[in-house]
Design brief:
By secondary structure, the chain is α+β, with helices and mostly antiparallel strands. The protein has helices at residues 17-43, 48-59, 63-108, 112-138, 148-152, 165-176, 233-241, and strands spanning 6-12, 179-182, 195-199, 205-210, 221-227, 244-249, 255-260, 263-271, 274-282. The chain is built from seven helices and nine strands, in the order E-H-H-H-H-H-H-E-E-E-E-H-E-E-E-E. Strand 3 and strand 4 form a beta hairpin. The model has no long low-confidence stretch (mean pLDDT 85).
């Protein structure tokens, strides 16, 4: 079965301090569930239904919220698995070039310091290749939640303007809890059960986001008004209007009614400028 085309659009949200705090709390819970437990349990082979039951209780999330976390993690794993053969070939190429450069330096008997650095780099590349090949053979997946670039800043604190490791860790934890994904489906109202968009009279969108029960807030929903996409607004409006009820029959002839349309998923991301949002629309 061929995959449906997916179109992605983004915007920046205007939020009150209270709204921003709610989204930050959602992202923190989402990130905690994603990295502290689910990855390890999935890698250990725990059955999906068992995982869902335990996560709904432990984190106070809905089944759809759990599915969003699971699908996001499965996407990260699949991306690494697809990319790894390319990384292996790239590393082999870099090793070959490094060996050539070392050979030329040794022939000319030039630059002992440069030669030492080249050999050191070659050793690192060989170690990396061995690890990649071992992971490819075993099927193991290594994930860095946050980013490797940000993670490596802890080894050069002064260069990255950090007073100490605690100062870096605060930013690291914020980086790891900076976003969350809200999964859509074509058989749900407005293409998404957990974040439903409605069109306001002025043409902007009103988002009604279902918050996890685990946040313990006074309301189950966060409402965001006046959301507009500089690019893709019309496409999103078309996707929302595509949702409709259709009538069909089962194999036994029983009459059934169901909803169909376009799946509309959302990703909320916090960066240094504030909180942004992304909308992904899957065509029918």
């Amino acid at each position: 079965m061929s995959k449906l085309p997916v179109f992605t659009y983004q915007t920046r949200l205007t939020l009150t301090p209270e709204q921003s705090a709610s989204l930050d709390a959602y992202a923190a819970l989402h990130g905690r569930a994603l990295r502290t437990t689910l990855f390890a349990k999935m890698r250990a082979g725990v059955p999906r239904n068992e995982l869902k039951r335990s996560f709904l209780r432990r984190f106070g999330i809905t089944a759809r919220q759990f599915n969003a976390i699971r699908i996001e993690l499965e996407g990260k794993i699949a991306s690494i698995q697809e990319r790894r053969p390319e990384l292996i070939e790239e590393t082999k190429g870099r090793i070959k070039r490094a060996e050539g450069a070392i050979g030329r330096l040794e022939e000319k008997k030039l630059g002992s310091h440069v030669l030492h650095q080249k050999k050191r780099r070659l050793a690192i590349l060989r170690t990396k290749l061995d690890a990649l090949l071992a992971d490819q053979e075993s099927g193991r997946v290594r994930l860095c939640f946050g980013s490797r670039r940000f993670c490596h800043k802890q080894f050069s604190l002064e260069e990255n303007a950090y007073a100490d490791h605690t100062d870096w860790k605060k930013d690291w934890q914020a980086e790891r809890s900076s976003q969350f994904f809200v999964l859509g489906s074509k058989d749900e109202t407005s293409g998404n059960q957990s974040c439903q968009a409605a069109v306001a009279p002025d043409g902007s969108l009103r988002l009604r986001l279902r918050l996890p029960d685990g946040l313990g807030g006074p309301s189950k929903y966060l409402v965001l008004e006046g959301v507009r996409f500089a690019y893709g607004q019309e496409a999103i409006l078309q996707a929302l209007s595509a949702s409709r009820i259709v009538t069909g029959t089962t194999k036994t002839g029983r009459l059934v009614r169901k909803r169909e349309g376009s799946a509309v998923s959302y990703r909320f991301v916090r960066d240094r400028k504030g909180r942004g949002g992304g909308c992904s629309r899957a065509s029918r």
